[in-house]
Amino acid sequence: MAGTSNLTQIVNRIRAMMYDTTQEIQSRQFNVFGVTVVTVIFDQPTQTFALEGLADKNRRFAFDDADLVAIEVYEALIEFRETF
Question: What range defines the domain where residue 36 resides?
């Protein structure tokens, strides 16, 4: 059940961004083997997330649901791990 544990950790990190009101814009990096695979950016005033991936830094996906962001991050990390 390591996958469930990893997903829980991702969800906790993303939700922590929502509860931390010290900055309007926050970002968290999610790494595998020391490589940043995904960066999550949270905009506090609009309560929206942006997901920026390793493959294409100019492409971002917007989300308004923390759980959906967590699933996308989890899948990106798994996909990256499977390439090695």
Answer: 2-82
